[in-house]
């Protein structure tokens, strides 16, 4: 697939995923204010390591990096607020809601659904774990407000997982919309 990738057109989802992967692998601690040359080297490195194809690297929205570096999230991304945990996998057993049980079934503590996900960035601050979730959605205005509401259940699960993992209250979750038209940081 890696070799054949150049023959395929990239969808909006593919471009968003490529940007997300590039952000995930970027080290804001070593380079808190990336230049275009820094980003070019970063993308070349991702291609050389076969993390991205050349076509995916060319589709990365590099202005997302400067947006993040100049945003209120910069101290979190650069490790100034605490240790960073990138792409943290979560597995959270949750009790099944009674409405989801078959008729005449009684709720049992053994009946669970497993929630799986991946936290983009968790920063372990002295105040508690802070979660940052990158979004590449091409939405703005009222659609952005609707999209933030759509993501609230997802990040609520991330909050529950982080609090269970660290035994501390999560003081903030940030949705970082990095698409050029959607540039927005939402604190939940």
The low-confidence parts are none
Strand order of the largest sheet: 1-2-3-4-5
- Which outline best applies? globular
Helix-strand string:
HHHHHEEEHEE
Number of strands: 5
Radius of gyration: 19 Å
The amount of helix comes to 25-40%
State the major sheet: 5 strands, mixed
Structural class by sheet pairing and helices = alpha+beta
Q: What fraction of residues sit in β-strands?
A: 15-25%
Kindly report how far apart the N and C termini lie. 38 Å
Q: Provide the residue-averaged pLDDT.
A: 89
Number of continuous helical runs: 6
Fold topology:
Elements: H1 12-25, H2 36-48, H3 54-59, H4 63-69, H5 74-77, E1 84-95, E2 112-125, E3 128-135, H6 142-166, E4 172-177, E5 184-187
Parallel strand pairs: 3-4
Antiparallel strand pairs: 1-2, 2-3, 4-5
């Amino acid at each position: 697939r890696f070799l054949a990738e150049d023959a395929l057109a990239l969808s909006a989802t593919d471009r968003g995923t490529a940007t997300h992967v590039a952000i995930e692998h970027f080290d804001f601690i070593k380079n808190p204010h990336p230049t275009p040359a820094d980003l070019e080297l970063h993308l070349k490195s991702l291609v050389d390591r076969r993390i991205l194809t050349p076509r995916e690297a060319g589709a990365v929205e590099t202005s997302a990096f400067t947006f993040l570096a100049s945003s209120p999230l910069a101290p979190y991304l650069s490790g100034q607020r605490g240790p960073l945990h990138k792409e943290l996998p979560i597995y959270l057993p949750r009790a099944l809601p009674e409405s989801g049980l078959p008729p005449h079934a009684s709720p049992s503590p053994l009946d669970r659904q497993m929630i799986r996900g991946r936290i983009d960035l968790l920063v372990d601050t002295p105040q508690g774990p802070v979660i940052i979730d990158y979004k590449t959605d091409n939405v703005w205005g009222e659609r952005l407000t609707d999209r933030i509401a759509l993501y609230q259940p997802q990040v609520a699960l991330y909050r529950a997982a982080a609090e269970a993992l660290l035994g501390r209250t999560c003081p903030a979750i940030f949705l970082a919309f990095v698409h050029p038209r959607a540039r927005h940081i939402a604190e939940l």
